[in-house]
Predict the structure.
Amino acid sequence: MKQQTFTDIEYANRKRITKREEFLKIMDDIIPWGEWIAYIKPYYFDNKVGRPARGIETMLRMFLLQAWFNLSDEAVEDTICDSYAFRTFMKLDFMQEQAPDATTLCKFRKLLVDNDIAKTFFNAISRCLEEHGHIMRGGSIVDATIIESASSTKNKSGKRDPEMHQTKKGNQWHFGMKTHIGVDAGTGYIHSVTATAANEHDITEAYKLIRDDDEVVYGDAGYLGLDKRNEIKTDPLLSKIDYRINRRIGSLAKLPEGIAREFERYQEHRKSSIRVKVEYAFLLLKRRFGYTKTVYRGISKNLHRIRILLCSANLLMCAKSGGWLAV
């Protein structure tokens, strides 16, 4: 057992545990550290040249802190030195070692992005949740959200990110990318993630978010006509799915008053009551993890961060439901 320091003893006498500490304790308990480290190890530095590499677990913990709290490389290094909760999560003893510097973290993140480790993590967690009965088969909910990007040209290249585009939603223009997700209709866990430029229509990515054994798919009015698209009609599995898509706002008012309108209103309410589960995933992404704006140039780097956050969102939902005790 690790010997307690005077700081540990002092902090143990506090009357209140912060929400940050509570969150980090949950994530520390539920993340399969050994499995995740094994996924990174084949690509990690071999220590044959240069200074000795820091431990994979130490770097992975620092990378996750950066993603969860939306910090820059320098900011996460400073916060580890400043925050007891961060230092505890990192399992650092400043008497023996210091926090990795920003350059080391940058190189570690590049290694993860180049080898698409986030996708490996996401798929592994999805398989684990499915094996333990937390992800139900048979139905999916599809949706997309806009992630804003810097539209300014005041940078070294003098240009905006060429992979990002603008789109109009309502009466407002947005510049950035879209995150498309597929969510299990029964439990609300995210099972599929893709990303495109913001000007791509939601419906063009929908077929990538549907599982082969889905029997029903829910979506908002942006997915009207999904069952008529070629990629759906020509697929023997996707063409048999029941697509329950919400009507456009105001379309019910055009129906004649009476039983027919009330029945359609009831049907729309039922669809929306199921489809709303997808909004909680976006709430975790944008509010809990603060990912409302892109932090890198290019879609692939931002998709890597988004996969890490949505994988963490699945783990957090599992932990809050008590399901992590069975995983």
In short: The chain has a mean pLDDT of 89. The chain has two domains: 6-115, 136-326. The first helix runs from residue 6 to 12. Residues 136-326 form one domain.
